[in-house]
C-alpha cells in the first residue's frame, strides 16, 4: 500500500512537470503583430478594482503599450464599497498606532493592518514614527489615512495627467459589490452605450495586479482568427511578479507558494483547457465528458455571447469556477490564449491564507450550482450531467488539497521505523523540491522571474515546508465553517 501511494504521488509529480515542459514549448513567441490582420473587432478590457490605487496606473500603462494594432478600450470599474470600507476601518488606526509604539516587528504589522495601507507604506510608517509618542503617531497616521486617495481618485488624476483617451472610468454605486457585479455593471454599460456594435467585439476581465505579456496582442488575435471568433477565450498566468522581493524565512515560504501555484497553472490548468479545446476541434466525444473551469483573470468573451450566457453569477463566491461549470453544461469550448501573464503572489502569510481560504471556500458552493443553472437555463436541463462530472472533478482536487499534505506527514512519521519507506519518502520530497527549482529556472529563462542570485537551498526548504502545510488554510476554513453559523469567506477579505 505504501509503495502504491509513493508511485501514484511520484508519477503525479512527473506528469505535472512534463505538462509544464509541454506548456512552455507550446507558448512560443507567436506571429508578429504587424503580420496579423486585426481589423474587425474591438477589445473591451474591464479592470474591476478595490483598493488598487498603488498599482492601477502602472497596469493601465502596460496594457496600453501592449496593444498597437487592436482597437482597445480599457474600463476601470471602481466601487463605492471602497469608500465605505475606508470609513469602517478608521478605528483600526488606534490599534496600529499602539503596535508602532510597542515596536512590533514590521512583518507582524504588515500582516495585521494590510487592509489600511500597502506593505511598503506600512514599513515606511513604522520606520518613521516608531520613536514618537502614541498621541503624535496616531495624529500622523490619521492624517496620512485621510489624505490617502481612493482608486477612483487615483484613476481620475492618471487619466488627466497621461491624457488617456481610450480609458473609461466607471464606479458601481454598491456598498456590497463583488467582482462579478462590477464586471456585469461594466458589460451592461458598454452594451447600452455602444452606438456601433459588432458581433465580433470582445470583453476581457483583467486583474489590476497583473503584468501583461508582451505576446498578449499577437496571441489573442491569432487565437481569435484561427478559431473563427470563438465565444470564450482564457489567459493563463504565473504568480511570480513580486518573487524577487521576498526575503528572510517567511520570504522563502512565500516563494514556495508562488512556485506551487505557478506549477499548477502551467502543469494543470493550461493543459486542461488545451486538451478540451482540441477535443472540441476534433469533435471528439471526450469534449462532452471533460469538465473545465475558468480563471478570473483573463476571462474573455464575445460581447454578444456574454449576454446570452447570462453574465457572471453574483451569488457564488468564485464566479470563475461557476462560469467554467456553466460552459461545460452548455458545451462551449474555452480557447486558451498562448501567452503567459505574470501576477502578484501574496506578500504576507496572512494574505496568503486569506487567498487560499477564499479559493477553497468556492469548492463548497459547487453543491448549489445545479440550482443556479436550473434557474437561468431550464431549456438545457438535460445537460445537467455535466453537474455530476464537475462534482467529481472538483472533489478530486479538493481531497488532494485537503488530505495530500496530511497523508505525506503521516507516512513520513510511520516510515521512521522502516528505512526503505523513509528513503522512498525522502526521494519523493526531494523530487518535489527539484521540480519546483526547475520551474524557477525555466521562469527565469523566460524573464518571468528576475534574474538575480537566489539561495536555491533555502528556496527548496521553503517549497518542502509549504508542501506540508498548504492545506492549513483549507482546514482553517472548515473549522470556521463548523464553529461559525453561516460563515462565508469573501474575495475582498485581506
UniProtKB/TrEMBL annotation:
InterPro entries for the chain: Nucleotide-diphossugar_trans
Residue stretches spanning the membrane: 387-414, 421-444, 456-479
Gene3D superfamilies referenced in this protein's UniProt entry, alphabetically: Spore Coat Polysaccharide Biosynthesis Protein SpsA, Chain A
Coiled coil: none
Keywords linked to the UniProt accession: Membrane, Transmembrane, Transmembrane helix
Name the record gives this protein: Glycosyltransferase 2-like domain-containing protein
Source lineage: Bacteria, Bacillati, Bacillota, Bacilli, Lactobacillales
Amino acid at each position: 500500500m505504501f509503495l502504491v501511494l509513493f508511485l501514484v504521488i511520484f508519477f503525479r509529480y512527473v506528469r505535472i512537470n512534463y505538462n509544464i515542459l509541454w506548456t512552455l514549448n507550446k507558448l512560443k513567441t507567436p506571429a508578429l503583430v504587424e503580420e496579423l490582420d486585426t481589423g474587425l473587432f474591438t477589445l473591451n478590457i474591464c479592470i474591476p478594482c478595490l483598493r488598487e490605487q498603488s498599482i492601477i496606473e502602472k497596469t493601465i500603462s502596460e496594457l496600453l503599450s501592449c496593444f498597437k494594432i487592436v482597437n482597445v478600450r480599457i474600463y476601470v470599474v471602481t466601487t463605492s464599497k471602497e469608500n465605505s470600507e475606508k470609513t469602517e476601518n478608521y478605528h483600526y488606526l488606534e490599534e496600529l498606532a499602539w503596535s508602532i509604539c510597542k515596536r512590533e516587528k514590521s512583518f507582524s504589522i504588515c500582516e495585521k493592518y494590510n487592509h489600511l495601507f500597502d506593505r511598503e507604506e506600512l514599513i515606511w510608517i513604522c520606520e518613521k514614527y516608531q520613536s514618537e509618542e502614541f498621541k503624535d503617531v496616531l495624529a500622523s497616521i490619521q492624517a496620512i489615512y485621510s489624505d490617502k486617495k481612493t482608486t477612483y481618485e487615483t484613476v481620475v488624476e492618471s487619466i488627466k495627467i497621461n491624457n488617456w483617451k481610450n480609458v473609461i472610468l466607471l464606479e458601481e454605486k454598491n456598498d456590497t459589490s463583488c467582482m462579478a457585479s462590477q464586471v456585469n455593471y461594466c458589460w451592461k454599460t458598454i452594451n447600452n452605450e455602444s452606438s456601433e456594435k459588432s458581433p465580433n467585439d470582445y470583453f476581457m476581465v483583467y486583474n489590476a495586479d497583473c503584468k501583461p505579456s508582451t505576446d498578449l496582442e499577437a496571441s489573442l488575435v491569432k487565437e481569435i482568427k484561427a478559431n473563427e471568433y470563438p465565444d470564450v477565450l482564457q489567459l493563463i498566468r504565473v504568480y511570480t511578479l513580486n518573487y524577487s522581493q521576498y526575503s528572510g524565512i517567511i520570504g522563502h515560504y512565500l516563494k514556495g507558494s508562488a512556485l506551487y501555484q505557478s506549477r499548477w497553472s502551467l502543469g494543470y490548468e493550461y493543459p486542461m483547457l488545451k486538451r478540451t479545446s482540441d477535443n472540441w476541434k476534433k469533435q471528439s466525444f471526450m469534449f462532452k465528458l471533460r469538465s473545465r473551469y475558468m480563471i478570473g483573470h483573463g476571462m474573455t468573451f464575445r460581447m454578444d455571447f456574454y449576454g446570452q450566457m447570462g453574465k457572471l453569477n453574483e451569488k457564488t463566491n468564485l464566479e470563475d469556477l461557476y462560469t467554467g461549470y456553466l460552459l461545460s453544461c452548455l458545451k462551449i469550448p474555452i480557447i486558451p490564449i498562448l501567452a503567459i501573464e505574470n501576477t502578484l503572489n501574496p506578500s504576507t502569510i496572512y494574505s496568503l491564507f486569506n487567498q487560499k481560504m477564499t479559493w477553497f471556500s468556492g469548492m463548497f458552493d459547487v453543491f448549489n450550482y445545479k440550482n443556479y443553472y436550473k434557474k437561468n437555463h431550464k431549456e438545457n436541463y438535460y445537460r445537467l450531467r455535466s453537474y455530476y462530472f464537475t462534482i467529481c472533478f472538483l472533489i478530486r482536487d479538493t481531497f488532494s488539497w485537503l488530505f495530500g499534505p496530511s497523508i505525506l506527514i503521516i507516512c513520513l512519521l510511520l516510515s521512521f521505523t522502516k528505512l526503505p519507506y523513509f528513503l522512498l519518502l525522502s526521494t519523493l520530497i526531494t523530487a518535489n523540491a527539484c521540480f519546483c527549482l526547475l520551474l524557477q529556472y525555466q521562469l527565469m529563462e523566460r524573464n518571468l522571474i528576475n534574474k538575480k542570485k537566489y539561495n536555491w537551498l533555502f528556496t527548496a526548504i521553503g517549497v518542502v515546508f509549504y508542501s506540508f502545510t498548504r492545506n492549513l488554510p483549507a482546514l482553517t476554513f472548515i473549522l470556521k465553517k463548523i464553529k461559525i453559523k453561516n460563515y462565508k469567506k469573501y474575495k475582498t477579505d485581506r
